[in-house]
Amino acid sequence: MSKRNVTCVLFVVLVLLSSNLMGSIIIGLGNYTSKLNDLYVPYPSPLISNSLHGHGFQFGLESPIKLFNSKHFFIQPGLYYVKKGGKLLVGDFASQQNIYDLRYIQLPVALKFKYANFYVLAGGYGAINTRARKTITIAGDSLTSDIKNNVKSLEFGLTAGIGYEFRVRRSSYFLIETRYEKGLTNIFGKSNLMGAESWGKNSATRFMIGYRF
């Protein structure tokens, strides 16, 4: 994706966020898993794990927009900076560790239903990869390389969550939320990553806190 297209997408999202008086500042932690299937490892040692497991973070903004002036239904666009990735164990007795550090600008859009202080939401997201690094550790020695050319620049997925918010001032709220993301894109499908064509999809369970004003 060209820098010009990225700029246009971010501009549209910022317009949506700024067009509404309500907004939420969100920070969160998550447990990220990238499922790797039919992964070929180009040496005799067996693959111990076929999943990347790791913890990530995110921070950003969301802005619920009322649907038909309803008190219960909203469209909620957002803009996040997200860290994904994790650790892949390779070889007999996990003698090799491959750690992937993947960073994204993530743009979720969800339909939100709110009743009293509880809410549920469901929708989708698009994510723009901004960083992709791989660190290989064998017998205590580590080597980090840039693998951005091996990771797709765009990722798409589904998201759903449930949360609770409580008033702290007349028009301000704290909120807590848990959200699940299911990636639909083969993030490693751009080219060979580990000696053969491999593929994987991100998924995440995240816990978030925020402040809505």
Describe the overall structure.
β5 and β6 form a beta hairpin. The chain starts with a helix and ends with a strand. It has one domain: Porin (Beta Barrel), CATH 2.40.160.20. The chain has 213 residues and is mainly beta.
Largest sheet: 8 strands, antiparallel, barrel
Number of domains: 1
Shape-level CATH architecture: Beta Barrel
**Class from secondary-structure proportions:** mainly beta
Low-confidence stretches: 37-49, 192-196
Shape: elongated
β-strand number: 10
As a whole number of angstroms, the C-alpha radius of gyration is 19 Å
Main-sheet strand order equals 1-2-4-5-6-8-9-10
Tell me the name of the CATH class. Answer: Mainly Beta
The pLDDT mean sits at: 77
Distance between the termini: 34 Å
Quote the beta fraction.
over 45%
Q: Secondary-structure element sequence? A: HEEEEEEEEEE
CATH fold field value: Porin
Give the helix level as a range of percent: under 10%
Q: What is the number of helices?
A: 1
Per-chain topology:
Layout: H1 3-18, E1 24-37, E2 51-62, E3 65-66, E4 73-90, E5 96-115, E6 118-138, E7 141-146, E8 154-167, E9 173-183, E10 199-212
Antiparallel strand pairs: 1-2, 1-10, 2-4, 3-4, 4-5, 5-6, 6-7, 6-8, 8-9, 9-10
